[in-house]
Amino acid sequence: MILRKSMTLYIKPVPPFNFDATMHKPGWFSLPKERYEHYEKGRIWMPFCVDEELYGIKLESNGTVARPEIKLTIFSESQLGSKNKKRILEELNWRFELDRDLKSFYKEFQDDRVLKRTLKKFRGMRIRSSGDLYESLMIFIILQNATIGRSARMFEAMLKRYGTRLKFDKREMYAVWRPKDIANVREDELRKLEIGYRAKFFKAISEDFAKGNFIERDLRKLNKETLKERLEELYGIGPASLWYLLFEIFHFYDALDYISPWEQKIYSKILYNRSKVSIGKILKDVKHRFGKWSMLAVHYLWEDLWWRHEMENIPWLKKLIKI
Predict the structure, then answer these.
(1) Could you read off the pLDDT of 128-153 as tens digits, one per residue?
(2) Which of 78, 101, 124 is the C-terminal boundary of a domain?
(3) What secondary structure letter does DSSP report for 34?
């Protein structure tokens, strides 16, 4: 799909806003990002799906943390109408939390022994959704019970077979497949891509979304417990994926009720400087210390760790990463 039309707009996020720390998440899934987005300091290109319409977007930092401004270029197949432009801006604001004011969070923990250095370094960093709800579910399923290398191979195979290749701004990248692309595909056809049991999960979830059983904009209106119950209805979604969804996609800052064994080792090191602390103790201590900000607080610590690893290669973390 060639996106020849373009429109440029300027957005002013609520300050402080750290563009690079928001857009670039080294601590995310280690999948081949160049296939579906491209980041350089101060700018990023990515596919952007809104209401099942595909666009390409380019975001560029035009300001500072204290006085932020984003230059947004939207690429589309045809001339963009006012309704579509409004929806894209609404989704950008939601997925990147452009209007979120975190000053009370910074004020509460500016002198906290664990957080103060990280808050100073990453002041203005927001949560960034990995895509819409459907895209995020597909990625979480890819990551289930697999090494980074295997996840990357499965993701690339699915992108090439069912994703959409976009061309815009002299760049090429894939958009993640959509529900209609998978709902009518036989499970055995999906399994030919060597994705194993995930084929059943992909198909079941895609059928649900294609039928309109899960409308993300409606789900955003629910309280956390009701939303949790609805998300638990999704086939193949376990506790680890559930709490990521509540935090990354729906922005509940206290959504920390599950820690995987792999995350346990990392939290043990960054919070206690020990090789292994019980999951129960980690959860209890974090909730006691950070309260309603629990997941946001550990998100800051997590991203700080991965940014440092990207710059200087942290030996103990490298040992935990299975290629």
Answers:
(1) 987 899 999 999 899 888 777 788 88
(2) 101
(3) G
Of the candidates 320, 322, 302, the one whose C-alpha atom is nearest the C-alpha of residue 25 is 302
Measured CA to CA, the distance from residue 307 to residue 189 in angstroms comes to: 39
Residue 228: both structure tokens together: 């949790």
Question: Which domain covers residue 189, as residue numbers?
Answer: 133-249
**Does one domain contain both 93 and 175?**
no
Contact assessment for residue 35 and residue 170, using Cβ atoms and an 8 Å cutoff: no
Q: Would you give the distance in Å from CA 65 to the centre of its chain?
A: 21
Compute CA distances 274 → 30, 31, 69, 278, whole Å: 25, 28, 41, 11
- Per-residue pLDDT of 269-298, as tens digits, reads 999 999 999 999 999 999 999 999 999 999
Please name the residues in contact with 170: beta carbons below 8 A apart, sequence gap of 6 or more: none
Q: CB of 287 within 8 A of CB of 256?
A: yes
- The answer to whether the beta carbons of residues 226 and 261 sit under 8 Å apart is no
Whole-number Cα distances in Å, 199 to 154, 205, 302? 11, 10, 31
Residue at token pair 């350089």: 40
The pTM is what?
0.93
